[in-house]
Every structure is written in structure tokens, then in C-alpha cells.
Design a protein that fits this description.
Elements lengths: L16 H4 L3 H8 L7 H4 L2 E2 L3 H14 L6 H11 E2 L5 E3 L18 H17 E4 L1 H5 L13 E2 L12 H11 L3 H18 L19 H12 L2 H22 E4 L2 E4 L13 H8 L5 H16 L28 E2 L1 H21 L2 H22 E2 L4 E2 L2 E2 L4 E2 L9 H5 L7 H14 L24 E2 L1 H14 L2 H25 L6 E2 L19 H20 L6 H26 L2
Antiparallel strand pairs: 1-2, 3-4, 4-5, 6-7, 8-11, 9-10, 11-12, 13-14
Bound molecules: ligand LLGJG24Q.
Length: about 575
């Protein structure tokens, strides 16, 4: 494949790195805090070519003794940049259907209506790049892709890598196979051009990826369409992405080659520049600041930006703040599980192609990863997998939803299923994970960061619930279904209250949305919609029967009789007592 091989050259995507990725212009404008949300500036389009913009900026700096006022900078931005988002047009997916068949699986009329509304939201989240992006990419921070995309929503107006896994599954359940395939083909074209898939569809994400789920997307597409040829044709790209991750993220731990999240760029996150410079004030030297920036961006690569999951303080615990980020020194359960899954799926696709040698090669890679996951990450005492702290050479015995990720991808010996099921269920019991009315929180630690307590996120809820279902033991299956139904009901309550699907929810409050972190809670929202559509499709009949301890049927009949206000009170009580 003629792809560039590593992230070191990727600041050349679109040829405008000095505007959007690093340099004096970016620093000066972002530090002036011209916009409430730092992401706004780096999403704006250039009016002049990058070279001319840089030249004129230099003239401005010289003329102002290198200390331009806020007003000077505001004028410069107004003169040289167009508002954000002008490169994207609203796009109604051409394969969108008013009544996809998943709706037939839902018996309850209110839930069916909700399913219909979620299906409508795909039209709000569809985006197509205008032709000028392809002609003049250097004027934009958006990474050109051939096909339209479904975005997460809110401030996230471009594609995001791992979000797209759940979006694509939702699209497939909504019978929008063309849109789903188009998004997968976009990612494949990005791997061919850039060598890996950046965190999101902007050049400023040039040094980091996100949890590697492209191969999982292809698997989902093939499961829905039986189009084996699609997987076979994708193999070269999928192998390339797998090798990219392994080659650029490897660490040696206890004699095993495992992976960590690791960014390869320099400087603060362009889209949160000022925020990063401020937290870096806690560090004295340029080297220590640069290390801090790396930890922040590596945490962003994990998708969990930010969380106590990545804190290691001087005592070796997770108590701390962003200054304690040590992402690169923590071997994560999810990343290694995903890599195992990628290797297994690549082997499976090679088997479909009849290529036994390649199948064996990737089976071996999977087994090597599995051995590492077992030896380093499985913790017999805890009865679960735990992230591993390489600084203090010890497991991190803190609940994070990703501790259960191996269940999702079956990264364990299947002959151990009964034992693992019993251990994991008692781990769940010990951590009281079934006591939260709004879903399983991402962690049990309250830091104010958005990937900490009490926030609960659709993708992690999905991994936990589907992971338990995979175990296929009666107790695990029962809990899986109970949590899936609870999640659907809680999201429904949030939706009936405010007519929004949220980016994150609140484990402590049935129907409550999440908060915290460096930006306000966003609505839309791609992955939340995808997970609900899948579970409405899978559990739509049980939901109307009120199984799993209280049903949406109860909520529905009350809606028609006593109205929304009373339902709010009843559902809140029900959330605590029944669900
Ligand atoms: O601008 C701050 C951060 O925003 C993104 O992260 C969050 O939203 C993403 C899109 O839904 C999601 O993939 C991620 O898990 C969220 O934490 C962005 O991905 C970060 O890189 C960025 O720093």
C-alpha cells in the first residue's frame, strides 16, 4: 500500500499544519480566548491561502511589537477566516427510510414513536463536504473524504473514529447500508492516504487515533449484508491499520508485547489549546510541559478524555487531577482487547478468502495478544481484568467500564466461560454496579472529569451489556438484559423530558444527562442513538411487556393519562425502586 507509514508526516494533511496544528498563529489566537469554545477557531475556514495568511499574520505581529491586542487579533480572524462549518452541507442520506423494519420489533406505541424520531435524527446528523474542500483542501481543517458522514452532533460537526462504530451499527439497523458502507470506505481511504485513522475528521487530530474499531465496523457491515467480498477487499487496509497500531503503541510488560494509548504530535491539543497551556502551568520545564501535552493527547486517543482512569499520583493511586495524567504508562484493557479482536477478525476474513497462511498468521497474532491479556491484565484476586500501571508495576484495582471489555470481544479462553462468568458477576456485585438507576457509571470516582462518576456513556454501556450477553450463562444473560432495558428506559425518560438524545448520561439519576469536563453536555447524538436503535430492535418486544422489573409500557399508559409532569415523578421513583 502506498500509504505514508506513520504519524510524523501527518501534519502535512491538507498542507496547513502551521495554521491548524501548531505554530505562532495558532498559539497567539487561541491564547487570546476570542471564542467561548476553543474548538471554534480551528474549525474555521481560511479566506486566503495558508502562506499568505501566515505572511500577513507575521506583518501584523511585527507592526504590533509582537503583542497585538485582543481587538487586533479579532480583526485578523474576521478578515482572514470564515465562520466554522461553512464547508459542510446538511445532507439527507439517500438510503434513509421512513419505516425501517426495526420499528416492527417495537410493540409499545410510545417507544415505536421514539424509534421513529431517532430514525429521523439521522437526517439532522448527515453532512456532506462541499466540492471546494476537495479542490482547495489547504483552506480547511476538515479532512476530505469521498462520502457523506453521520456526525455525533453538537460541537462535533465532523466524523469521529470510535463514535462511528455505534453510529454505523445504528445505521445498519435502520437499513441504511449505503451510508454505513460510505463511512467505512471513508475510513479506508484515510488509512490509504494518511496511514492511520485520526481521532476525528480534522487535521488538528494529526498525532492521535481513537480505539481501533474499523475492523469491527467491517464485521458489522458483513454480518448485516453477507457481503463477504467487502471484507476480503478491505483486508489490505485492515492489516495496515492493525500494524500501525501495534508498531506505534507497543510496550514490553512482563515479557509481553502489549499496547498503550500514545499520541505522536507536539504541543497542546489545538482544539483545546488554552486549556492545555493552563494545566501545563503546573510544570516548570518545557520538557515537562511537553510530556503533559502528550499525556493529555494520549488520553484523548483513548476516547476517555478525561478520567481518573489515567491518573497516577506519587503514591501510585488514581487520586489526583489532570497534572497526574500518566496515560502512556497504563496498559489499557480495552485497547489490547480491541487489538485481539482485530487480529481475530482479520484471520476470519482471510479464511473467507481461502488464504490459510494469512489466516494462521493473524490467528497467531491474536493468540499472542490473548496470552498477554491473560498474564498481565486478568486479575485473579479482583475476579476481573484490570489496567496495569507500568510505573509502579502493579494492577490498577479501580472499576472502569473497560475492565469488562474482554467479554465484548471474547478475549478469554472459551473453556473458562463458567469461571469467568462467576468471577465477573461477583466483581459487579462487589462494586455495586447494579445499584445505579441511570446505568453503569464509567468509573466510581468523582473528579469532575467527564469520563468519571457519575457519567455513563452509551458506548461503554453497550460494551458491558453485550459482553455479559456473550458469556451466555443464565445469570450473565439476565443481568445483560436488565441493564439494556434500564438503559433504554432511562434514555427514553431523558428524551421525553427534553426531546434530546445526549452525548452522556447520569448514572445516579434515572433519565438524567451527564456533565463535567471541559465543554457543556452535547446533544444529537450519534452513538447514543445508535445504541438505542439497536436495543429497541433487539428488545422492543420485551420492553412493552414490562419485563426486567418495570416496563416502558407502564410509563406509556401513564403518559396518556396523567401527563408528562406526573410521569417524571413516577419514573424517578420507579427508577430507584423498580429498575
Ligand atoms: O474537544 C475536547 C475533546 O473532544 C472530543 O472528545 C469527546 O467527544 C468525542 C466525540 O463524541 C468522543 O469520541 C470522545 O470520546 C469524547 O471524549 C475529542 O475526541 C477529543 O480529542 C477532544 O480533545
Amino acid at each position: 500500500m502506498a500509504a505514508q507509514t506513520g504519524p510524523t508526516t501527518n501534519h502535512k494533511i491538507n498542507g496547513n499544519g502551521q495554521i491548524y496544528c501548531y505554530g505562532e498563529l495558532l498559539k497567539t489566537i487561541q491564547m487570546a480566548k476570542l471564542f467561548e469554545d476553543s474548538k471554534t477557531f480551528v474549525d474555521m475556514k481560511l479566506k486566503q491561502a495558508p502562506a499568505k495568511t501566515l505572511e500577513d499574520f507575521e506583518l501584523l505581529m511585527e507592526s504590533k511589537n509582537r503583542t497585538p491586542s485582543r481587538e487586533d487579533l479579532q480583526k485578523f480572524v474576521d478578515d482572514y477566516f470564515s465562520p466554522k462549518g461553512t464547508e459542510l452541507e446538511l445532507w439527507t442520506p439517500t438510503d434513509w427510510k421512513a419505516n425501517p423494519s426495526f420499528l416492527d420489533q417495537i410493540t409499545d406505541p410510545d417507544l415505536k414513536q421514539w424509534g421513529q424520531e431517532l430514525n429521523n435524527i439521522w437526517k439532522d446528523l448527515g453532512r456532506k463536504m462541499n466540492d471546494d474542500v476537495l479542490k482547495n483542501p489547504e483552506y480547511y481543517s476538515i479532512i476530505p473524504v469521498p462520502n457523506p458522514v453521520i456526525i455525533p452532533g453538537g460541537r462535533f460537526i465532523e466524523f469521529y473514529y470510535w463514535d462511528s462504530y455505534w453510529i454505523i451499527r445504528g445505521l445498519l439497523h435502520s437499513e441504511m447500508q449505503d451510508t454505513a458502507r460510505g463511512m467505512i470506505e471513508n475510513f479506508m481511504s484515510i488509512v490509504q492516504r494518511i496511514g492511520f485513522i485520526p481521532n476525528g475528521g480534522r487535521v488538528y487530530y494529526w498525532g492521535r487515533s481513537q480505539p481501533p474499531l474499523l475492523t469491527g465496523m467491517v464485521k458489522s457491515y458483513v454480518d448485516f449484508t453477507n457481503d463477504d467480498l467487502f471484507a476480503i477487499n478491505a483486508l489490505e487496509v485492515l492489516e495496515h491499520e492493525f500494524e500501525y497500531f501495534v508498531n506505534n503503541h507497543s510496550v514490553q510488560v512482563k515479557g509481553h508485547n502489549l499496547a498503550v494509548y500514545r499520541d505522536s504530535s507536539t504541543g497542546p491539543r489545538p482544539e483545546s489549546y488554552r486549556e492545555d497551556v493552563e494545566t501545563a502551568e503546573n510544570f516548570d520545564t518545557p520538557e515537562a510541559k511537553e510530556d503533559h501535552y502528550s499525556e493529555l493527547k494520549s488520553a484523548a486517543e483513548s476516547g476517555m478524555d478525561f478520567s481518573s482512569r489515567w491518573f497516577i499520583n506519587e503514591n501510585g493511586t488514581n487520586v489526583g487531577n489532570l497534572s497526574n495524567l500518566r496515560t502512556r504508562s497504563i496498559v489499557p484493557v480495552d485497547l489490547n482487547s480491541f487489538l485481539y479482536w482485530n487480529a481475530k477478525l482479520i484471520a476470519e476474513f482471510h479464511a473467507k478468502a481461502g488464504n490459510v497462511d494469512k489466516m494462521t498468521e493473524y490467528e497467531k497474532k491474536a493468540q499472542t495478544l490473548l496470552q498477554g491479556i491473560q498474564d498481565v491484565l486478568w486479575n485473579e484476586e479482583a475476579g476481573c481484568w484490570l489496567d496495569y500501571d507500568m510505573i509502579n508495576e502493579k494492577p490498577r484495582d479501580y472499576f472502569v467500564s473497560t475492565n469488562l471489555a474482554p467479554l465484548f470481544v471474547k478475549a478469554y479462553n472459551i473453556s473458562d466461560t463458567e469461571k469467568i462468568s462467576a468471577s465477573v458477576l461477583s466483581y459487579i456485585e462487589k462494586n455495586k454496579l447494579d445499584t445505579f438507576p441511570g446505568g453503569v457509571p464509567n468509573t466510581l470516582y468523582h473528579t469532575g472529569e467527564q469520563w468519571d462518576f457519575p457519567n455513563v456513556w452509551a458506548p461503554m454501556q453497550y460494551i458491558v451489556v453485550e459482553g455479559l450477553a456473550n458469556l451466555n450463562t443464565p445469570a450473565a444473560k439476565e443481568l445483560s438484559k436488565k441493564w439494556a432495558l434500564r438503559w433504554v428506559k432511562s434514555n427514553f425518560k431523558a428524551y421525553t423530558d427534553n426531546f434530546h438524545m445526549y452525548e452522556k448520561y447520569n448514572a445516579e439519576e434515572f433519565g438524567g444527562h451527564g456533565g463535567g469536563g471541559e465543554y457543556g453536555v452535547q446533544t444529537g447524538f450519534g452513538w447514543s442513538n445508535g445504541v438505542i436503535i439497536e436495543w429497541l430492535s433487539k428488545h422492543g418486544r420485551e420492553l412493552s411487556e414490562g419485563s426486567g422489573g418495570g416496563g416502558a409500557g407502564t410509563t406509556k399508559s401513564l403518559i396518556s393519562v396523567v401527563g408528562v409532569a406526573a410521569v417524571t415523578i413516577v419514573a424517578l421513583i420507579a427508577g430507584r425502586v423498580l429498575w
